[in-house]
Amino acid sequence: MEYILILSNELYKIIFLLVPILVSVALIVWLDRRIWGFVQKRKGPNVVGPFGLFQTLADALKYIFKEIIVPASANKVVFILAPIITMTLALIAWAVIPLSETLVLSDINVGILYLFAVSSLGVYGIIMGGWASNSKYPFLGAIRSAAQMVSYEVSIGIIIINVLLCVGSLNLKSIVLAQQNIWFVIPLFPMFVIFFIASLAETNRPPFDLPEAEAELVAGYQTEYSGMMYAMFWLGEYANILLMCAMGSILFLGGWLPPLDIYPLNIVPAPIWMILKIVFLFLLFALVKAIVPRYRYDQLMRLGWKVFLPFSLIYVILTASFLFYFELLPTRGF
């Protein structure tokens, strides 16, 4: 009986986490389209519901009732598993994201390693979808995505090392609490900029949306998908975008901490600050999509391997040297 109570309690926690994430995905899709419309001097979604807020719900209903077509020449098992894996991995990564000092599903000591491992596995769903479709455009999109995500994960990993050197812990709550005096975005601003750009590439967002470039690859690895299976890829992509925004706010923007410990700011609930920072980073994601033209593939690879990787390595050396010289290295071990 005790085990059943523990299991039901954990199940409630998971539902409490998943429902807000899925609602947030629907809202940021609407926000993304509204910002894109604003930049192009048009209205964007504005018919279904107040300010077009229910447009994403209408799109979701359309996907639910559309027929799922599996190509005759596709590997059916892998074809069906691919979007499920993509969406599942995008959602389980949220288990270790702390919205406040107490509001976290699983507070593990190696939270940053868990996040890095789960986000690295995300490429498998895309490769499976592209290969199992047995079609040229999806396969090319999958190959592009694999090379792109692996290339920029290297830079993200080295950027995270800069933060870990300053904290001395892999726990996400410890990383946030270490920023009580100063957010890491100030001393590590170049790393924040590179992290943001690498996040765009990691989530296949413009100007790095080459795996699904409409002009060349129709819809890339998603070309042969329809109905709810296509929507799962779409949900996974936006859940990953929110995850990268959450990681950016934890690593560099102080997580749930207010910008100043003064009266009007420190009475705002901690989760609100975390949500505001995630929304701020997503606004930057949306503006880049609307403003910056798409890179060529050779430019994308050159930026990752010849610019970001060497610069990140040099900054790790500089950070470690600075902390060692001024005796600021944290005393507790990893």
Commentary on this structure:
The chain has one domain. It is about 65% helix and about 0% strand. The two termini are about 40 Å apart. The relative contact order is 0.14.
Distinctive features:
about 325 residues; 12 helices; about 0% strand; mainly alpha; single chain
Strand share of the residues?
Answer: under 5%
The domain count comes to 1
Q: What share of the residues lie within helices?
A: 55-70%
Number of DSSP strand runs: 0
Along the chain, the helix and strand elements come as HHHHHHHHHHHH
Principal-axis shape: globular
Spans of at least 5 consecutive residues whose pLDDT stays below 50 are none
Biggest beta sheet summary? none
List the helices and strands and how they pair.
Elements: H1 2-39, H2 55-65, H3 76-92, H4 111-132, H5 136-167, H6 172-177, H7 189-202, H8 214-217, H9 227-252, H10 263-266, H11 270-291, H12 297-325
Helix pairs in contact: 1-9, 1-11, 2-9, 3-4, 3-9, 4-5, 5-7, 5-12, 7-9, 9-11
